[in-house]
Design goal:
The chain is an alpha/beta fold. It folds into 2 domains: about 200 residues, 2-Layer Sandwich (Nucleotidyltransferase, domain 5); about 180 residues, Nucleotidyltransferase, domain 5, CATH 3.30.420.40. Strands 1, 2, 3, 4, 5, 6 and 12 form a 7-stranded mixed β-sheet that branches. A hairpin with a 2-residue loop joins strand 7 and strand 8. Helix 8 packs antiparallel against helix 13.
């Protein structure tokens, strides 16, 4: 990387080592920033990196995606993430090592997306890293006699900052939770900036491990946006696929197994009894609810009904669609006039067919609008990082339940 001459103190020491560290002052004096957003979701399938060019701030922001890469986790890496996210084994020793290990994965993703865009790493101004959620407690639990909410995302930002030579914004959720929010969903802020329309109420359904819905009323302000987790996205169908294929398949590629099966009305009715679906927003959920204990209960019910594997996966796929339908019907006022689907679930034609069958509004994908479904959440964390360093509040209190707007993100320089 390029060396800077004529510097003294710590900056000079870094320059002599060949590391050119950008300062926050340098960033704040620039109108246009090159920002990498990093995201690893509840599906635990890989690390996504989006390289963006961001100009301006707030409603005057302009975002251009330059490149996107996704680094799949190895089977060993994914097993370790799921083990640590199970809430069981894995103490402070394992968590410390995992955080630094994942920081290295984040750094590799940054370098790969730079290479794809033919941009030098030293040209990057900022990185926004969501990290990997290992546990999320949005509702108060008693701990040492005190009711507390909490969340844990790991992926050491100092490893990224050291390797990229620029500030890193990470750990976004905790500031919102400190202000009484649930720390999720986070992407509605960026969605409002990028997708709002004066003439139409837009629904944005992301289907990652968990499904989350944002509704942006026509001509609204940020305070009018509402969003919440609809329930399982890919998480339940993916884990069932893995279990029922003996581990030979992680996911139901292109929805082929679901397409070969029939939806069981009895199993679907059992799944729809889920109390989460009836809980009004603000609400958020994750692997702590829809993890292996939940999967075990689904498999036990399916076994009692004598269902073959393809019917179980078909029913789980339609369950995700039914969760979206229920969320829109019961909790969306105003109702969206169109639904734009992103995330990995938008690549599943069987799931998309189930969603379209259940809804009476147009169902599109991000690609229909010229956006990238795979990169959407990584781009959102690039946007939120840029807003953080400029001191702009980047949560949506109506969405998370926070008492007031806050600037989310911790800055590592």
């Amino acid at each position: 990387m390029r060396r800077r001459r004529g510097k003294s103190g710590m900056t000079g020491a870094l320059a002599r080592r060949g590391i050119s560290m950008k300062t926050l002052n340098e960033i704040l004096n620039k109108h246009t920033l090159k920002v990498i957003g990093l995201m690893s979701g509840t599906s635990a399938d890989g690390m996504d990196a989006a390289l963006t060019e961001i100009s301006g701030s707030g409603t005057d922001i302009s975002v251009r995606q330059l490149a996107f890469v996704s680094i799949p986790y190895t089977d060993e890496e994914r097993r370790e993430i799921l083990r640590l996210a199970s809430g069981g084994e894995g103490g402070s020793h394992d968590l410390a090592l995992f955080s630094f290990y994942l920081g290295g994965v984040c750094l590799r993703a940054c370098r790969e997306v730079c290479a794809k865009a033919e941009v030098l790493p030293e040209e990057i101004d900022l990185v926004g890293s969501h990290g990997q959620t290992l546990w999320h407690i949005p509702q108060p639990e008693s701990y040492l006699g005190t009711p507390l909410t909490a969340t844990l995302q790991l992926g050491e930002p100092s490893v990224i900052a050291e390797g990229m030579g620029c500030p890193v914004v990470s750990d976004f959720r905790v500031r919102d939770m400190a202000a009484g929010g649930q720390g999720a969903p986070l992407v509605p802020y960026a969605e409002y900036l990028l997708y709002r329309r004066a003439d139409k109420t837009v629904g944005l359904q992301n289907i990652g491990g968990i499904g989350n819905l944002s509704v942006i009323p026509a001509g609204c302000g940020l305070e009018d946006v509402f969003a919440f987790d609809t329930g399982p996205g890919n998480m339940v169908m993916d884990r069932l696929t893995e279990k029922l294929t003996g581990g030979s398949q992680r996911i139901d590629t292109d929805g082929r197994l679901a397409a070969a099966g029939k939806v069981s009305s009895e199993l679907l009715a059992f799944l729809m009894e889920d109390a989460y679906l009836k809980t009004p927003p603000p609400k958020t959920t994750g692997r702590e609810k829809y993890g292996d204990a939940y999967i075990g209960a689904v498999l036990n019910k399916a076994a009692g009904l004598g269902l073959p594997a393809c019917d179980i996966i078909a029913t789980a796929t339609d369950f995700t669609a039914a969760c979206i339908q229920t969320a829109i019907r019961d909790f969306c006022r105003p109702m969206p006039e169109q639904l734009i689907v992103g995330g990995g679930g938008s690549r599943n034609p069987t799931l998309m067919a189930f969603i379209r069958r259940r809804l009476s509004i147009p169902v599109l994908t991000n690609e229909d609008l010229g956006f990238d479904s795979d990169a959407k959440e990584a781009v959102a964390f690039a946007v939120m990082a840029a807003e953080c360093v400029r001191g702009v509040c980047n949560n949506v209190p109506r969405v998370t339940g926070a008492r007031h707007p806050v600037v989310m993100g911790k800055i590592t320089v």
